[in-house]
C-alpha cells in the first residue's frame, strides 16, 4: 500500500530538534546543491521569489547579515527561489542585478518539496538549521528583525 506525499508531509514532525528536510536544488550554474552539503554549519534559509514585494524588502537586510558573518565559517546563507520554472532567466538576472550572495538556489517546478513539508503558505519564510542538520525553527525571524542576530549567535555557538 502506497502513501501519498501529502499524507507523509502531514505526518512529518517539523518541530525543534527534528531533522531538516534535505532539499536539493540547482544553483545559477546548474549545479545541484543539497542542504546536507552544509552539515557542520548552521544554515539560515530564505524561501522567497522575485515577484514577492516583502521578500525584496528583506534583501538589503539579508545582505547586511551576510556581510556581518562573512568571515564566520560556522554559518551559511541559502536562498531558495520558488519562482515558477518559466521565470528561471528572470531569477538569474535578478540575483545578479541585486548582487545577491550566499548560496542561491532555484526550486522552480520542485518548489512543493520545500513549501509543502514546512506548510509554507506565504513568503518570505526563513528557516534556521543547526550544525547537525536539525531544525532550530521553521519560522525564524526575518533579516530585518532585531531578533535574528541573537538567534544566529545562539545557533552558531551551540555545542
UniProtKB/TrEMBL annotation:
<protein>
    <submittedName>
        <fullName>TlpA family protein disulfide reductase</fullName>
    </submittedName>
</protein>
<dbReference type="InterPro" id="IPR013766">
    <property type="entry name" value="Thioredoxin_domain"/>
</dbReference>
<keyword id="KW-1015">Disulfide bond</keyword>
<dbReference type="Pfam" id="PF08534">
    <property type="entry name" value="Redoxin"/>
</dbReference>
<dbReference type="InterPro" id="IPR050553">
    <property type="entry name" value="Thioredoxin_ResA/DsbE_sf"/>
</dbReference>
<keyword id="KW-0201">Cytochrome c-type biogenesis</keyword>
<keyword id="KW-0676">Redox-active center</keyword>
<dbReference type="InterPro" id="IPR036249">
    <property type="entry name" value="Thioredoxin-like_sf"/>
</dbReference>
<feature type="domain" description="Thioredoxin">
    <location>
        <begin position="14"/>
        <end position="157"/>
    </location>
</feature>
<dbReference type="InterPro" id="IPR013740">
    <property type="entry name" value="Redoxin"/>
</dbReference>
Amino acid at each position: 500500500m502506497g502513501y501519498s506525499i501529502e499524507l507523509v508531509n502531514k505526518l512529518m514532525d517539523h518541530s525543534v530538534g527534528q531533522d531538516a528536510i534535505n532539499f536539493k536544488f540547482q544553483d545559477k550554474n546548474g549545479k545541484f546543491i543539497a542542504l546536507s552539503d552544509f552539515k557542520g554549519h548552521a544554515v539560515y534559509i530564505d524561501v522567497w521569489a522575485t515577484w514577492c514585494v516583502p521578500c525584496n524588502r528583506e534583501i538589503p537586510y539579508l545582505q547586511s547579515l551576510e556581510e556581518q558573518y562573512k568571515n564566520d565559517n560556522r554559518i551559511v546563507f541559502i536562498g531558495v527561489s520558488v519562482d515558477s520554472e518559466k521565470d528561471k532567466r528572470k531569477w538569474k538576472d535578478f540575483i545578479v542585478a541585486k548582487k545577491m550572495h550566499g548560496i542561491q538556489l532555484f526550486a522552480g517546478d520542485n518548489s512543493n518539496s520545500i513549501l509543502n513539508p514546512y506548510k509554507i503558505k506565504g513568503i518570505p519564510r526563513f528557516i534556521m538549521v543547526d550544525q547537525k542538520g536539525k531544525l532550530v525553527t521553521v519560522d525564524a525571524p526575518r533579516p530585518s528583525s532585531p531578533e535574528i542576530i541573537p538567534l544566529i549567535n545562539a545557533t552558531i555557538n551551540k555545542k
